[in-house]
Design a protein that fits this description.
alpha+beta; 8 helices; about 160 residues; Alpha-Beta Plaits
Length: about 160
């Protein structure tokens, strides 16, 4: 099984609520590797690149206003089936409907201010990672835990 990479954004609402450490702990506890991490302020230009498919939709101005409202943390995550694993760990988009045990289910209460973003497909992950990280900013290295986290055929 090949490793996947995905983009995770800890959104401005989570940063304001000081949840960065708790979210990162959940990711690391799941056995995924953080191969890139940065705190940044999203500009309207970055927002339009990231949410290109939504720019012409009526809700886009509010989305841009939210994502540019304060700093966020961009993470590049790597691991077996990282996209699916992270989307399951995040929980449903509407935090009021997200299952207990998920990041949104445990820490969120809103559909719009839902704490975290994760790429939804390998194609989206590749496109989104390129918006937030240069190739030389990603550091992938096996950890000593690899052999106890996954079976050999999953690595």
């Amino acid at each position: 099984m090949a490793l996947e990479r995905t983009l995770i954004l800890i959104k401005p609402d989570a940063v304001q609520r000081r949840l960065i450490g708790r979210v990162i702990t959940r990711i690391e506890d799941k056995g995924l590797s953080i191969i890139g991490l940065k705190l940044l302020q999203v500009t309207p230009e970055i927002s339009r690149l990231h949410y290109a498919e939504h720019v012409s939709k009526p809700f886009y101005p509010e989305l841009e206003s939210f994502i540019t409202s304060g700093p966020l943390v961009a993470l590049a995550i790597e691991g077996p089936e990282a996209i699916t694993v992270m989307r399951t760990l995040m929980g449903k988009t509407n935090a009021r409907e997200a299952a207990p045990g998920t990041i949104r289910g445990d820490l969120g209460a809103s559909r719009q201010m839902n704490l975290i973003h994760g790429s939804d497909s390998p194609e989206s992950a590749q496109r989104e990672l390129a918006i937030y990280f240069r190739a030389d900013e990603l550091v992938s290295a096996p950890t000593l835990l690899t052999s106890v986290l996954w079976a050999k055929e999953e690595q």
